From TrEMBL:
It comes from Aeromicrobium alkaliterrae. InterPro entries: PurM-like_C_dom (IPR010918), PurM-like_C_sf (IPR036676), PurM-like_N (IPR016188), PurM-like_N_sf (IPR036921), PurM_cligase (IPR004733). Its EC number is 6.3.3.1. Keywords: ATP-binding, Cytoplasm, Ligase, Nucleotide-binding, Purine biosynthesis. The lineage of its organism: Bacteria, Bacillati, Actinomycetota, Actinomycetes, Propionibacteriales. The gene is purM. It catalyses: 2-formamido-N(1)-(5-O-phospho-beta-D-ribosyl)acetamidine + ATP = 5-amino-1-(5-phospho-beta-D-ribosyl)imidazole + ADP + phosphate + H(+). This is Phosphoribosylformylglycinamidine cyclo-ligase.
Length: 351
């Protein structure tokens, strides 16, 4: 006799995974959450939106990419959730939106309840740190499609911003200052290049101690994505912010150009910061030229704010008070001064 378990899917283990994760999900609640996990849909009391004059809902969906392979190879799963949450909520905050809630989706070849609970633990901790409710999710077992120890993950999030507080390119003006916020490392982008360099070309192992990094290669590669959500919201609410950009896949210039209007051009000076050594190692070991490196990786800058020049110093101080290393990295000028309209030019050599 054949049943679901014989086909490789264990309903019992899925139920046990839900029980193990409940404690962590409970830590990622907001007062507006109605009920608990286990239902068909998560519920969020939206009556608070009545206090907005014109609330705009913002939404974002993303995954973690091939960084999950590092977590799988190291059998360490309690930090990869930070990467997922960071990719979601920090996309929302660039328009000034406060994240309200998120849902996650984990697909795996075999449900190991303890492993799923560790993944959700990281997600819940990051949600709590960013003020986001973990409203629900789905764990799917896909035997034959994924190996027993393989998984992938994705999520979506929803936030809200008052219409007249919306940030964006239409506010950017010549004279604005570029305030850069330091990344915690590679974050969650460019790992196909990173894995190719360290494992394919250099032949390094994850347990290799790397003096330049002060840790093993694996620990450095699993460094969680920095969460900029609450500091960036505080910055936006302080006033003087015109636009923000989350530096993810595509790199600094390409992501910043997404919020730069055709009426201006932007210049960023590399001399204003020193990237983490992990970026230099990728370039050196893989003989990766600067344009390719800066296109694939954040090279030390995880978030950028374009602010009124008279508020730039105060913006840097506010971010530093919130634990984010920040500095003025460049300026906005009229189109043609630093390049064509809508362009971002990065110049100089790193400090």
């Amino acid at each position: 006799m054949t049943d679901y378990a014989a086909a490789g899917v264990s309903v019992a283990e899925g139920d046990r995974a839900v029980e193990l994760m409940k404690t962590w999900v409970e830590k990622a609640r907001r007062p507006e959450v109605v009920g608990g996990i286990g239902g068909f849909a998560g519920l969020f009391d939206a009556s608070a939106l009545k206090d907005y004059r014109r609330p705009l809902l913002a939404t974002s969906a993303d995954g973690v990419g091939t960084k999950v392979q590092i977590a799988q190879r190291m059998d360490k799963h309690d930090t990869i959730g930070f990467d997922l949450v960071g990719m979601l909520v920090d996309d929302l905050v660039v328009c000034g939106a406060e994240p309200l809630f998120m849902t996650d989706y984990i697909a795996t070849g075999k449900v190991v309840p303890e492993r799923i609970a560790e993944i959700v633990k990281g997600i819940a901790q990051a949600c709590a740190e960013s003020g986001t409710a973990l409203l629900g999710g789905e764990t799917a077992e896909h035997p034959g499609l994924l190996g027993p120890d393989e998984y992938d993950m994705a999520g979506s999030t929803t936030g809200v911003v008052e219409a007249d507080a919306l940030l964006g390119s239409e506010l950017v003006r010549p004279g604005d200052a570029v305030v850069a916020m330091a990344s915690s490392g590679l974050h969650s982008n460019g790992y196909s290049l990173v894995r190719h360099v360290f494992f394919g070309l250099a032949g390094w192992s994850l347990d290799r101690q790397v003096d330049e990094l002060g840790t093993t290669l694996g620990e450095a590669l699993l460094t969680p994505t920095r969460l900029y959500t609450l500091p960036s919201l505080a910055l936006a609410r302080a006033g003087g912010v015109h636009a923000m950009s989350h530096i993810t896949g595509g790199g600094l210039a390409a992501n910043l150009e997404r919020v730069v209007p055709e009426s201006v051009s932007v210049r960023i000076d590399r001399a204003t910061w020193s990237p983490d050594p992990i970026f230099g190692l990728v370039a050196q070991l893989g003989e990766v030229e600067r344009p390719a490196l800066e296109q694939a990786l954040n090279v030390g800058v995880g978030m950028v704010a374009l602010v009124e020049p008279e508020t730039a110093d105060a913006a840097v101080r506010l971010l530093q008070e919130h634990g984010i290393e920040a500095w003025v990295a460049g300026e906005v000028a009229e189109a043609g001064v630093h390049g064509p309209g809508g362009s971002v030019t990065v110049v100089g050599e790193h400090a």
